[in-house]
Amino acid sequence: MPKVLGGSLAAHRDEVRSRVFAALRELLYGRGFDAVTLAGVATAAGVGRSSIYNHFPDRQALLIAFVEHEAGRYVADLEAALAAAPTPTEQLAAFVRLQVQRLTEFHLPPGQALAAALDPSAYRRIAAHADPIGERLSGIVRAGIEAAEMAVPGDPEVVVAMIGSALSAGHLVEGRSDAADTAVEVVLRMVGAGKQG
């Protein structure tokens, strides 16, 4: 009988998932999703191969669970950061800083490569986790316009899409200690907030 980690089945499940997600994060960073196997993740996580298959029947299921877990963490951290920022300009700066920080921690293939690696339904499930984040960004920009802190030319949603696209370029910020400050300055200029915040 396999060893139960954490003393109970619920604790065991949480411990296995925690180890597996930590191992997957490292493997994604080091090798990319194409090189990830369930057996390799199990070995890196220090859990039995049968255990990982009990939790995740295939690589896609593992990646979906991982993205859902990471998205939940991100949204909780984002809500805390935004709650601590009193103005839309400061909220936008907090949003950008957190996004840049996560880009250096979260190493999924870019959209097209990920779409090619997954079946369409799995890709849609993963992509759906970006929707609430994009909606939050849109809300911040709209609040900034209403508060006269931001002056966006044309359709604000076009600017929001451009910000989202710019902030998804992880290869541009990796290893750069000044990346967050630069990104904040550029994004604030994009919305006409100048050097505020």
UniProtKB/TrEMBL annotation:
Keyword DNA-binding found: yes
Superkingdom field: Bacteria
InterPro entries given in the database record: Homeodomain-like_sf (IPR009057), HTH-type_TetR-like_transc_reg (IPR050109), HTH_TetR (IPR001647), Tet_transcr_reg_TetR-rel_C_sf (IPR036271)
Pfam families recorded: TetR_N (PF00440)
DNA-binding region coordinates: 37-56
HTH tetR-type domain sequence ranges: 14-74
PROSITE patterns membership: HTH_TETR_2
Record keywords, A-Z: DNA-binding
Protein name, entry field: TetR/AcrR family transcriptional regulator
Native source organism of the sequence: Pseudonocardia ailaonensis
